[in-house]
Specification:
The protein is α+β, with helices and mostly antiparallel strands and about 160 residues long. It has four helices and five strands; from the N terminus they run H-E-E-E-E-E-H-H-H. It has helices at about 1-35, 85-90, 100, 140-155, and strands at about 45, 50-55, 60-65, 70-75, 80-85. The chain has a five-stranded antiparallel β-sheet. Strand 3 (about 60-65) and strand 4 (about 70-75) form a beta hairpin. It is flat. The termini are far apart. The mean pLDDT is about 75.
Length: about 160
């Protein structure tokens, strides 16, 4: 019984390793099958997030059209997903199948602002008053500098002096 208790952690560890490698192999097989299903005209997404159309597929490489008339050669391992036509057109061209059904169109969707300025409420709700970021005039700065120098002389101390003796 004592031997079984000491071996139990090792058995659990080996079982966990087996399950992890099994799931990794399954994912690898699915990725290989997905990449082998690429045909010319298929829409794909690279692992970098770029969308393109397959023009030619070789053994290890694939020729992608990344923009009209722009072709690039990629390794098949760099293809992250093979997309069906409806999804590719929805993402790249903004086309949806629901427009034909009379449901939502692109105009019906809410507009997303380019920045967060519309999310922040300002104190000036009535106008677009902007803060004055210009430098103060040299005369005003000179007066402030003179005032601070007078305050230092009243104490009888200048910068760097301490009260201790």
């Amino acid at each position: 019984m004592d031997n079984l208790v000491t071996l139990l952690p090792f058995i659990v560890l080996i079982g966990a390793m087996f399950l992890m490698t099994r799931s990794a192999k399954k994912k690898q097989q699915q990725a290989l099958q997905m990449r082998s299903s690429m045909q010319p005209g298929t829409g794909v997404r690279t692992i970098g997030g770029m969308y393109a159309t397959v023009k030619e597929a070789g053994d290890d490489t694939v020729l992608l059209e990344v923009a009209p008339g722009v072709h690039a050669i990629y390794a098949k391992n760099s293809i992250g997903a093979v997309l069906d036509d409806a999804e590719y057109n929805r993402i790249v061209h903004g086309e949806t199948d629901s427009e034909e059904d009379g449901e939502l169109s692109a105009d019906d969707l809410p507009a997303v602002p380019d920045d967060a300025s519309s999310l922040i409420e300002s104190d000036d709700a009535k106008g677009d008053a902007k803060p004055d970021l210009t430098k103060k005039e040299a005369a005003a700065e000179g007066d402030e500098a003179a005032g601070s120098a007078d305050a230092a002389r009243k104490d009888g101390k200048t910068d760097g002096e301490a009260d201790t003796k």
